[in-house]
Amino acid sequence: MTEFQYGEDTALLRRIIVLLLVGFFLYGCGSKTKEEMLQEGIKLTEEGNVTGGVILFRNALEKDPNFVEARFHLAKGYIDLERYPQAERELQKVKLQDPSNTRIDVFLAKAYIETDRPDEALEQVETYLASHPPTAEALVIQGRAYLVKKDFPQSMEAFRSAKEIDPQTLDAYLGMASVYLAEGHIESALPVLETAAELHPSDKRALLLIARIVMARGQLDEGLEIWKKVLAIDSRDIDALYQVGLLTINSGDLDEGSKFAEDLIRIHPNRPEGFQLRGLILYEKQEWENAADAFQRSLSHGGNLQSHYFLGLCQYRQGRYEVALSEFNRALDIDPDFTPARMMLASTLLVQNRLDDAIFQGQTAVASDPRNAWAHNVLGTALLMKGRYEEGMASLELATQLDPGLATVHLKKGAVSLGMGDIQRAESAMLDAVQANPDALESRLSLALFYVRQGQSDKAIASLQEGLANNEQDAFIYYQLANLYFRQERFDDGAEALEQAKSAKPDFLAPYFSLGVFHLAKAEPEKAVEEYKGILKHAPDNFQALTLLANSQDQMGNRQEAIATFKKAVDVDPVRGTLVYAYNLIRRGENPKALRVVSEGLGKAPNAPLLLEMRGKIHAEQRDYPAAIADFRNLSQTSPDKGLPLLAQTLVASGQNDEAVALGLNLISSNPEAPFGYLLLSAIHNASDNSDKAYAVLDEGLPKVNDPRPLSMNKAGLLRGQGKNAQALEVYGNVLKDHEDFFPAVYGKASIHHQQGEYAEASRLYRQAVELNPNFVPALNDLAYLLTGQNQVKDGLDFAMRAFRLAPTDPAIMDTLGYALYRDGQSDRALGLLESAAQSLPDNPTVLYHLALVYHDLGRSGQALQTLESSLAKGDFPEKKQARELLNNLNGAQ
Q1: Residue 589's pLDDT band (boundaries 50, 70, 90)?
Q2: Structure-derived torsion over alpha carbons of residues 97, 101, 103, 104, reported in degrees to the nearest 10
């Protein structure tokens, strides 16, 4: 089954104003001479309206393409707008039209330096200085070029010469300070920056550097005052608002810090910093679910490794270890040397008893930061648990030397005994740790985890129950108890424990979410609705709760309530909310309504890539190719990796093959080492039913690109599409020879073996893919379906539940879980899931067949008969023979 997939920035008002201005200028320019346009453009630029000036310069050039002065000012305008490639193009034209004009050398040099081409910048500056008296502007560019090349003496000489020519040149001071900082001479940089700040009190750039130096020294109070000076100059400065907010939080004033977070969100709604600040405040308040939602919103607007790290911490705090691992890994993808993320990754792996992985991460952290006590502690614990006693003890001893208060003696003794295989002594030591501090949640959870690892769930439950103290901390114990009960399939006890967790700490949101998933799995959407409403009482803007509530209301048939909730989700997050609402409409076959909703979303979040992608796909589905092409062209401006393939695909669909091919060829010629151009051109040929050319393009690119994996994976996909499974397996195998942990290739191999009926090998590979990426829903779902079909129902049900927790509204996941429940003898729980799946996928014969099985098992022969007939009318599917046999049996029984 394949489902049509749909996939985020200037404000709408600004776009309208610019369009009106353009219209005004075009209307007014028709009767003006080119010289008048030039002078008006210069005036607008001097007044700060550079965009307006650029429009007039372009209009002047439309009247006379050889109007050199207009082209020169157009290039300068592009530089002011930081559109350096366009500036360079126009300056090169000026050079061709007027070779004697040496003014352009300085501006060309500036364009080169801004596009990281220092050698070309130096060549232009030196050409200029050879025939002109030195200017501060030219020398500053020369200094910047030498700085990029790390020729610090030459760079400093150029900046000093610029300052001597014009002692007021701020860029000279900033350049000198940058050289000092690059050389590590912070004390020399500070007085230069302080002088610059005094000379230019209304320019914030020197203050920004001073603030960062002071903060790096740990002088937080002084740093706070400097950041406030920056805000006095520019009250909208993102860095200053963020840093003042952070420092305020650090002082313990969360309410004041919250004001800065909300100011950032209000002033810069499409930036990540405000949401990240909000998340940090909520994290300090231990509102893990709300904090996670804030960090997710930060990431939807760009975010950074800190957002991934803290999102991982939120998930870890709630016991969602697979999700936490994913976020810590994403932080490390951005910066492999970010030790906190690596240590939390190791700690999470340790909690999951993945000892080899935890040891590797601990060793990596220790190599990066040898004096990190936390790293030595985690590494030592993992080594001991692995049975490597001497190495583990050495790491733990070093950890306690670096930080004597890091770990309790009793827990360390327990880990040592466990590592030696002395289970009795390990249990005794951990019990001592709990008795030494009965209120310490960490020690009690460690003891419970120990029992779980030993397969003694009853002891784990008893130890947790002993820690109940009739206070808020009970909520976390009840939550862990619920997880243990669910492992034992004591579902009612698990649900009761979650209810008790809610009672102990009503604003602890994790139990509400768990109960929501529990009730959805039992086909009790009305009870799930109450859980999500409970979350919203404490966190009215919790996006995840709003979307789950809307889908549950829709599942109950409360369409108007669902629509109202979807609209609230849109208000909270215009991009993600619009996507979720539109997906719902598309699944209901209401594409025109979905199109209207997405267009309204683009009104709130202009040019949001995900919304442009979705709207373009809806247009393409409706064969409105001009509208789709327009959306995909806009998308290509900000997200070429998304927009260009869709643009090419739509061009082919609309019969514009030559334009599509030209698009791919241009991308390859502009960057022959990047896989993207080859992938695009191959897809174009494939869409044009020319598979030979599609393969040829990929084969041409494989030896040239910097990372051949995308081309190899694409080639394997083409081979599979033509039924050439053996060749596809060979391609996947070649990828894995060089990248053994590349889980998409592992999953690809598993899918082929599954398709060919080689179930043992498919199962092994699916499990390997899930180990490499525990949150990879397709592998979890396919493994669950395979195991269920092979009568390994309990294991299949476990993997189906894992997939469902990650994607509870995906109808394909609902189908797999429903089928696994049916095979486990739980047709009453399977019914609601399969009915919901069939409602979302009414043309999928396998889903209908599974629903018919449940109807039959529950004694609803009439509904089973009707559903089977509908299933068989949809065409071929793997279970068609069994469906026909069941239909014949039902007809014979009547």
Answers
A1: confident
A2: 30
With a CB cutoff of 8 Å and minimum separation 6, the contacts of 493 are 485
Instruction: Tell me the CA distances in angstroms from 706 to 51, 634, 684, 799, 824, one per residue in order.
Output: 38, 28, 22, 36, 49
Residue type, 750: A
Per-residue pLDDT of 379-414, as tens digits, reads 877 776 666 656 766 676 676 566 654 434 334 444
Q: Which amino acid is at 286?
A: Q
What b-and-e string marks burial along 484-495, b requiring 16 or more CB atoms within 10 Å of the CB? Answer: bbbeeebeebbb
Closest C-alpha to 475, from 316, 351, 317: 317
The predicted pLDDT at position 745 comes to 93
pLDDT at 622 over 80: yes
Q: Are 385 and 418 in contact (CB under 8 A)?
A: yes
Fold match between 408-465 and 819-893? yes
Task: Give the integer Cα–Cα distance in Å for 892 and 894.
Answer: 6
Please give the Cα distance from 453 to 630 (Å, whole number).
57
**What is the distance between the alpha carbons of residues 26 and 57, in angstroms, rounded to a whole number?**
12
- What string of DSSP letters covers 528-563? HHHHHHHHHHH-TT-HHHHHHHHHHHHHTT-HHHHH
* Separation of alpha carbons 563 and 547, rounded Å: 10
Joined together, the tokens standing for residue 642 give: 């998304």
pTM, two decimals, is: 0.47
Q: Which DSSP state fits 304?
A: -
Backbone angle region of 38, left / alpha / beta, with phi > 0 → left and psi within -120 to 50 → alpha: alpha
Q: Does the CA dihedral 87-92-93-94 come out positive or negative?
A: positive
User: 3-state SS of 164-218?
Assistant: HHCCCCHHHHHHHHHHHHHCCCHHHHHHHHHHHHHHCCCCCHHHHHHHHHHHHCC
Kindly state the average pLDDT of the residues 145-171: 89
Q: SS3 for 235?
A: coil
Cβ-count burial of 212 within 10 angstroms (0-12 exposed, 13-18 middle, 19+ buried)?
A: middle
User: Which secondary structure element, helix H or strand E, spans residue 207, and what is its range?
Assistant: helix 205-216
Class (C level, CATH) for 819-893: mainly alpha
Distance (Å, whole) CA 40 – CA 29? 10
As a whole number, mean pLDDT of residues 694-701 equals 90
In SS3 terms, 389-407 reads as HHHHHHHHHHHHHHCCCCC
* Dihedral sign computed on CA atoms, order 233, 237, 243, 245: positive
Count CB atoms within 10 A of the CB of residue 633.
16
Query: Residues 379, 388: contact at Cβ < 8 Å?
Result: no
Q: What is the pLDDT of residue 656?
A: 87
Three-state secondary structure string covering 688-711:
CCCHHHHHHHHHHHCCCCCCCHHH
Domain parsing of the chain, residue ranges: 408-465, 819-893
CATH number assigned to the domain with residue range 408-465, chosen from the 4 options 3.20.20, 2.30.29, 1.25.40, 3.40.50: 1.25.40
What pLDDT shows up at residue 647?
87
Q: How confident is the model at residue 555 (pLDDT cuts 50, 70, 90)?
A: confident
Helix, strand, coil abundance in the chain, percent, nearest 5: 80, 0, 20
Amino acid at 117: R
Q: Which long-range contacts (CB under 8 A, 24 or more apart) does 264-270 make?
A: 264/238, 267/236, 267/241, 268/236, 268/238, 270/8, 270/9, 270/301, 270/605
Per-residue pLDDT band for 658 (boundaries 50, 70, 90) equals confident
Burial per residue of 645-678, b for 16 or more beta-carbon CB atoms within 10 angstroms, e otherwise? bbbbbbbbbbebbeebbebbeebbeeeeebbbbb
For residue range 490-534, list pLDDT tens digits in order.
Answer: 888 988 999 998 998 888 887 898 888 888 877 788 898 999 999
Structure tokens that stand for 624 in this block: 């409105």
List, in order, residues 6 or more apart from 158 with CB less than 8 Å away: 139, 140, 142, 143, 146, 175
